[in-house]
Amino acid sequence: MLYSTISLSSQDVIKEEPTKLFSPKNPTPMETIFLSNIDQAVAFPVETIFFYEVPPNKGPSSTFGVVEVVKRAVCEVLLVPYYFMAGRLNFNNEKNRFELLCNNGGVNFVNANSRFELKELGDLSLPNKTFHHLVPRVAIYNSLAETPVCSIQVTKFKCGGFSIGFVTNHAILDGKSASEMFHNLASVCRGEGLNIEVVNNDRTCLKSRTPPQIKYPHKEYVKPLKNTPLATCFTSQDQKSPPPFVFAPNYVHKVFSFTPRMLNSLKENAIVKCTSFEAIVAHLWRARTRAIFDDLEENSTVLFAVDIRAKMSPPLPNGFVGNAVVTAFSSAKVKDLMEKPFGFCVEKVKEGRDRVTEDYVKSVVDWLEVYKGVPSTCNGKNFYVSAWWKLNFGDLDFGYGKAVFGGPVVSGNGEFVVLLNNGKIGGGINAFIGLEKDKMKRFVDCVFEI
Q: 175-212, pLDDT tens digit by residue?
């Protein structure tokens, strides 16, 4: 178990007033972009941050111009193909769904300075809830019209190091698409121009069928109750800007580090051939089930994302920027997860992934059209595993060398387990988990039984 070492406050990070960056080639007349049902189900902000040291053999002044470099790259180049990132979400009451207005409302850009040196922040690979000071959060009571779908903050540290923080709305970009946009921006900042041929923002390939044809039960989604903690357009037609997830005060949050050797041991114990992802999800599922459940006859469920780009026929087009992932699930009786061999848990995870076929995806889209649902994490027992370590953030270079670390500004929502790169040479995974105090104690007692 690992712990972060510093807490930032608003006094530690002084922010200038935000400026707006506009697309130089926004479409005329204004374009309105259709958002798929998969997009609709994940309309919440995602915060991502990258940390950079002063380049080797250079002084602190070598990074002095980073703010202007990033600003110019965004407004002069990036917002040409990504013009829609300067737009705004709109809830269309007539159609009862979100849409993206390409109104050139602007990308929010914040210039900030910290009194700390980068090394004083401690181990950057460890989730730190106070790192939210390093991203440009928008006031949670803002209306949709006032809320950018993309905001950027560059924070300079006393040593010359810096961080670049992004807030993007998940309804507009999934993880892979966001990573591609970050890499495009970095390429422009390095003076190498855009490294893409096309940005494909046509999401109509994921429209529902008429009439809808729901062929599966879709236990992975649920029609949300009012006041659900998962903010999407399906929670309320009057939904304002969805607030970022916050740390629940009754939860304990810990990071558990799994070395490559531990991951290999899990895969060996599975007996069946499996990936590191399948092994770690199965292991965390079983350990969390032991910590959460008392009734052996109940069902325990784990949710996770499956990329559908190559599962569709024809495959989704190159450069597709919408959400091309659906929620998959694995479910089993608590008794079976606890008493059967580890290979049983792994097989259940593999079944969940294999269940996602093209026919299944189309059924998901149709189910969401009818029931306006969200991933089923609202019962206090189901949980969602998010594999951030698989996103290609490690080699992101804005012209000052590769990031020391890049990843999400992690919240403390108990229904989400986040898998992160542990920042060490040779690999390994950090699992960030939040549980109530008594349940965390039970989890700690069994999580390293490998």
A: 999 999 999 999 999 999 998 878 999 999 999 999 99
The fraction of the chain above a pLDDT of 90, given in percent, is: 74
Whose structure tokens read 């390409």? 102
pLDDT value of residue 416: 86
Neighbours of 204 (CB within 10 A): 9
User: By the 8 A CB rule, do 77 and 199 touch?
Assistant: no
Rg (CA), the chain: 22
pLDDT tens track for 403-415: 998 888 876 566 8
What whole-number distance in Å separates Cα of residue 73 and Cα of residue 154? 13
Q: Other C-beta atoms within 10 Å of 38: how many?
A: 22
pLDDT (mean) for 345-370: 98
Phi, psi of 288 (to 5 degrees): -70, -35
pLDDT score, position 449 = 87
Contact between 356 and 363 under an 8 Å Cβ cutoff? The reply is no
Spatial distance between the Cα atoms of 7 and 12, rounded to a whole number of angstroms: 9
Average the pLDDT over each of 164-168, 258-262, 420-424 and give the range with the smallest value.
420-424
Asked if residue 73 has pLDDT above 90, the reply is yes
270: left (phi over 0), alpha (psi -120 to 50) or beta: alpha
Q: In this structure, are residues 66 and 394 in contact, taking their beta carbons and an 8 Å threshold?
A: no
Length of the chain, please?
450
Q: pTM score, two decimals?
A: 0.91
At residue 33, what is the residue type? Answer: I
